[in-house]
# Entry
Amino acid sequence: MTGPPLLGDRLRGAAWTFLTAARTEQRSMRGNPLLLVNAGFLPVVLLVIAVEAQRPPADRAAQIVTSVMLTALWGSTVWTSGGVLRRERTYGTLARCVCGVESPTVVLFGKSLGATLYGVGTILVATVATVLALRLPVALAHPFWLAVGLLVVVVSATTLGALLSCLFLLTRNGLLWSGALMYPVFVLGGLLIPQDVLPVWLRWVPQLLSLRWINEFLSDAAGPGPSATPLAVAVALTVAYGVVATRTYRWSIDKARQRGSLDHA
Amino acid sequence: MSGAAIEVEGLGRTFKVRGGDVVALKDVNLTVGQGEIVGLLGSNGAGKTTLTKILATLLLPTGGTARVLGHDVTSDLREVRRLTGVVLGGERGLYAKLTGRENLRFFAVLAGVGRRGLVDRLEAALDHVGLADVADRAVETYSKGMRQRLHLAIGMINEPPVLLLDEPTVGLDPVEAERLRQDVAVLRSRGTSVLLTSHLLLDIERLADRVVILADGEVAADVEVAEFAKLAGYTAIVTVRGTGCPPVLDGAQASRFAVDDLTEASGLWTLRLRVRDWSVESFGHLGAVLGGATILGVDVAPLRLEDVYSHVAAQLAANGRTGVGEVRP
# Structure
């Protein structure tokens, strides 16, 4: 038996656990039908519909492609990274994930990252293939900022997925909530339908969605030039998602340990 | 740090349910020494799994304290989890789509196994539980016994000094169950402390140093295995079949034997005697009891722990302690 680990060892241990959780979740995503539908099929359908009526010019095409990808990412996030804890409960693995040596939050965020990376990768492949097949003239004016935007997309979708996962853990009907949340955000999220088309009293909804701000940033980066404000708001919202997710998860675990419901299906 | 691996003092756990509270544990006191294997027995609902879950930090107690190697299970979670291996078993608790190796790898990392030497440790653990040949198959193709063996590998992968085993041989065939018992026996020689919950008293008989019986959420007995066997009040059952008049025990013989059952039909009788203390002299005493009777056959069955437990459970039931958590309005 050894004594308690040093800070450096603990950080290394947390990083190792985080990466292993991400890798494990990626592997468990293989062939997941929800992922294939939301990350593989959805962007293809949305893109075909979006350009069917009228072929857009290069700058508008980039905006459409970005909006479609982020819309598909929302669907993927709700069902995959947002469903991490729901699936753990179904498999009966939640108790072990919570009672590991490292913080359960590290495992949750690692798993959410794994699911997000798989989703983003699938969306990118499906979208690029569709853009090439449709011969859409997409311009990449600022590739560096597009890469920055992509990084923020992954981090933000990871924390958003973790937050949704925690919220779905609070209810036994997480699957129903996943379905219920998906389409309203398609309509109200400011991704496919412009925000100014929404009723005034509903325009606050997209302001709370980091993907809407990232959409604005990426659209600017693909056209006239990146703007710092939407990126900053997206990062701030991402941090807020992370904080709320962490607190909600700790609270859920404490409650489950009090009630004895940690290993319930 | 004290010398005990597990210390439980006045431990209580009450579940709130509609219509009242269910008391699963109340004022449980027990210790498991370092390198000791303690068998935990009790009827369904006696509180065994509740106790195991509290020690595994899956459940918070509502009263009392529990420590693992001196670390409190409610406040020092990281250390308790680092020092404790848990095997809850069952068909759930695994990722069905992942392979056995992928499952073991993930849970090994959660248990604190670092990158260095991980691959070797995985190979050794898979080999040890006999899953090396199927390690790269998806768990959804595993039999119940294979899943149970994978649970065992997961629980022992970080070689914890304290191991909580909840029904470890359930679902295993006799050969696999025996291999598991040998594995646990090896752990004893390494100094691992084990709290073993099992309905199979063969597990307890073969492995445990001590037996703790829970009833109604309390410790009803806490004795050495050898002492536990004496709780039944006899050490063997002799079944004698004969014809004619059945034997009658006199006062001296009654101190050595107790008539368990006597049936007569069609001139044949069957007498079941409980032998209080089986020894070489018992044959002589038995001969005196049966002297003059026409004997057709004699069968001697040594006491099994199942018999002891049945006896103890019957006594507990007679005292109004059924082992099932009571409901308080």
About this structure: Residues 174-190 of chain B form the longest helix (17 residues). The CA atoms of residues 100 and 135 of chain B lie 5 Å apart. The radius of gyration of chain B is 24 Å.
